[in-house]
Amino acid sequence: MECVMAFFTEGGMVDFFQNGLINKFEFFLRWRMYVLYISTNSHFWRIRLHRKNLEIFIDGVILGMRNRSGNEGKEGEIPDSANMWNILAGVCIYYPLSIGLTFFQKWFIKSYEFPLLVVTCHYVIKYFFAMIIRFVMEYRADRRTRISFKDQLQWLVPIGICASLDIGLSNWGLKYVTVSFFTMAKSSSILFMVTFALLLHLERWRPVLIISAGLITFGLFLFTWRSAQFELRGLLLIELAAACTGLRWTVSQIIMQGEEKLLKHPLDMVAYVQPWMFLAILPLFFMYEGSQLSFDKVTHYLNEHAPFYVLFFISFGGLLAFAMEMAEYLLLVYTSGITLNIFGIIKEVVTLSLAHFINGDYFSLVNTIGLLLCFSGMLLHAFSKRTLLKARTKSRMPDRRRLLTDVDA
């Protein structure tokens, strides 16, 4: 045992044990594969290994560490296969929920006079869903994460305010514009997200980042060109929502992927953020809809008194919103805010493409060019991200020659 630890001390590898980055039992199982030559030199034991075997061993340890580190994070490591499956599962859940919620909210709000009331009720529904599930999980397993009030004020209040304004202003804007116009205007959120990511040092300045974001935004703009009439009030509301989207997901990425990882589970994130989202939307709600509130008006739907229909539609929308937000945070754990936004843009392109084919809408040359530009920007971002991750992984590989020299010295 002393001889093994002596080698690791000399080679600088003892940190693997101290930091718990590789399991000791797994290490010794693998260690038996190597031929050991033990000799005495000065006053301590040393180990000599075949150079080729040592190189294979070090590569295996590094690969194991990289697979354990997992997520992409702050321009982090290359995800392992398990995380890739998690990302795929999140995308498969997120797409139908997000598409369904967009069209459902558009359909319901067009016939209902209180869009901010609907959003406020959704926050309450999501909070109770999250707390009930947390209670069941704590009862059957371990205690869930707890966050101090100070940390909530520092990190969760900005997220709650931005998320509340994002969702509230988006639903408000949908009252005045079509889904196509909403998609075109909301596409600018990736520009806000890139800006905040650069300001908060989540991303390093790279020209390719700006080019890819610009291609996606301009391409989506052309893709929805002349698909809807211009409406200034709706445009301003949606652009404010896009700015809130950028800040919201940037700060969320810091919380879920930062060194401290205050909240790394989507359920905990939803549970802790909802109260602040609720408090943030209340001023807007009372300012624009409070004076009109009455039981008759709130329960009025399609020119008749229908409280059960209103309750059902609001509850169903809240359930969709809860599931979609869980999927969003799941994707954020394993990717980044910008990548998550690109997933959303792909979803919007699919939605509008289906609308074109199902409804028989005509694809003009400008629309086709916009679609190609949009996909070009996505491919450019994916390629640059992959290249950057490979370069970072290569630069972090330890100098094996130095380790071999230490062993043979």
Number of helices: 17
Alpha carbon gap, first and last residue: 20 Å
Shape field: globular
Percent range for β-strand residues: under 5%
Total domain units: 2
Classify the secondary structure makeup into a structural class. Answer: mainly alpha
Estimate percent helicity: over 70%
Strand order of the largest sheet: 1-2
Please count the beta strands (DSSP E, at least 2 residues each). Answer: 4
Largest sheet: 2 strands, antiparallel
User: What is the chain-wise order of helices and strands?
Assistant: HHHEEHHHHHHHHHHEEHHHH
Low-pLDDT sequence parts? 1-55, 61-79, 399-409
Q: Mind telling me the C-alpha Rg?
A: 26 Å
Oligomer classification = single chain
Overall mean pLDDT: 71
Membrane topology: Multi-pass membrane protein
Pfam family, one: TPT
InterPro entries: EmrE-like, Sugar_P_trans_dom, TPT_transporter
Subcellular location: Membrane
